């Protein structure tokens, strides 16, 4: 056995580097959103993942609407709401149609 042999450096290929980067992003992902078309405006619908007090992974269904009442730069551009409607059962990525259910009214519209 030759004790003067130097270890061979480990060179990552482009594919290995890309796979590692994808794994890093997968670990950081906290949810997903899909574009939807409503009758009065387009919005985003999806979920946010979080851990509950027992460490179990949970998903919170959300809808995100543009803030139509924005008058100042200090007002938010978007508002996030709980989505209490049942999710479509067709596939993991819902198909957008022009017959989407009417979005929940914005907070400003309720007043």
Morphology: elongated
**Tally of separate helices:** 2
What class do helices, strands and sheet pairing give? alpha+beta
Helical percentage:
10-25%
Distance between the ends:
83 Å
Q: Low-confidence stretches at least 5 residues in length (pLDDT < 50)?
A: 95-101
Work out the number of β strands: 4
Which strand order does the major sheet show? Answer: 1-2-3-4
Q: Write down the overall mean pLDDT.
A: 79
Radius of gyration: 23 Å
Strand content: 25-35%
For the sheet with most strands, the description reads: 4 strands, antiparallel
Reading the helices and strands in chain order gives HEEEEH
Describe this structure in words.
- 17% of the residues lie in helices and 29% in strands.
- By secondary structure, it is α+β, with helices and mostly antiparallel strands.
- It has a domain at 30-106.
- β1 (31-37) and β2 (42-51) form a beta hairpin.
- The longest helix is centred in the N-terminal third of the chain and has 15 residues, at 14-28.
Provide a concise account of the structure shown.
The protein has helices at residues 14-28, 107-110, and strands spanning 31-37, 42-51, 57-66, 78-82. It is an alpha+beta fold and 111 residues long. Strand 2 (42-51) and strand 3 form a beta hairpin.
């Amino acid at each position: 056995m030759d004790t003067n042999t130097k270890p061979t450096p480990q060179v990552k290929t482009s594919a290995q580097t890309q796979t590692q980067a994808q794994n890093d992003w997968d670990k950081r992902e906290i949810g997903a959103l899909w574009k939807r078309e409503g009758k009065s405006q387009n919005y985003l619908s999806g979920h946010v993942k979080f851990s509950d007090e027992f460490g179990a992974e949970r998903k919170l269904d959300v809808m995100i609407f543009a803030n139509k009442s924005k008058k100042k730069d200090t007002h938010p551009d978007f508002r996030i709401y709980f989505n209490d409607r049942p999710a479509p059962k067709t596939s993991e990525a819902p198909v957008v149609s022009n017959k989407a259910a009417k979005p929940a009214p914005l907070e400003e519209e309720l007043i």
